[in-house]
Amino acid sequence: MNLPELLLVAGASFVAATLAAVAGFGGAAVLLPVLVAAFGVRDAIPILTVAQLIGNGSRAWFNRGALEPRVVGWFALGAVPFAFLGGLLFASAPLSPLTRLLGAFLLVTVLWRHLRPGPPRRPPLHGFVLIGALFSFLSALLGSVGPLMAPFFLAYGLVKGAYIGTEALCTVVMHVTKLVAYRETSILTVSSVGIGLALGPLMVAGSAVGKRIVDRLPERVFVALIEAVLVVAGLGFLLGG
């Protein structure tokens, strides 16, 4: 990959994080199409996983005093085996169906924002085993399932720092396991790790900038822009394969 392409990916990471900080959703989903265009599906998702690991790890640390360890423990019981299984499947899945599946996921993310039902019923503590299994498996294949997973943590009653930190630490468990699976199947390379580590600080910086401008510009403009990117990329992946 040449320098202009690296700069393009770096700029897209910063912009995606800024837009997501203003709109409140979709940072990873917005960045994913750019990474796919630059690196292909097989490399894009491991790179995104490394970058997400940095962001979620920092949020878990900053909110460590409000963590709900029992939720993390039950989530991990389901997340570890199914994230590993999903990572193994991702490594061997045919690229064309995998790309179409990614396109469908991006479109579902937009539909979810407009058609999502009310919050789910409060899950029992042990129910996070199933939540961890389902969303970790999907995350290993699709890169990010945050918009779909978050309502279950909120429905359990976690708020503010407890929600942010607990969900982040659960996601860290998920991402670490995915990276182990990607490494075992040789799709996690030194180059992928380096690029993901480089993108992490850019995404943090973009989030900080987004917080500074959130009160100055209309949120609907950023939401519309993010959704437009997701729809265009989703249709492109779905139809082009």
Summarize the structure.
This protein has one domain (3-240). It is mainly α and 241 residues long.
Q: If you had to describe this structure to a student in words, what would you say it looks like?
A:
- The protein is mostly helical.
- It has one domain.
- 82% of the residues lie in helices and 0% in strands.
- It has ten helices and no strands.
- Helix 3 runs antiparallel to helix 8.
- The two termini are 22 Å apart.
- The model has no long low-confidence stretch (mean pLDDT 82).
- Structural class given helices, strands, pairing? mainly alpha
Number of helices: 10
Q: Radius of gyration over alpha carbons?
A: 17 Å
Q: How confident overall, as mean pLDDT?
A: 82
What low-confidence regions span 5 or more consecutive residues with pLDDT below 50? none
Shape: globular
Give the helix level as a range of percent.
over 70%
Query: Which sheet architecture does the biggest sheet show?
Result: none
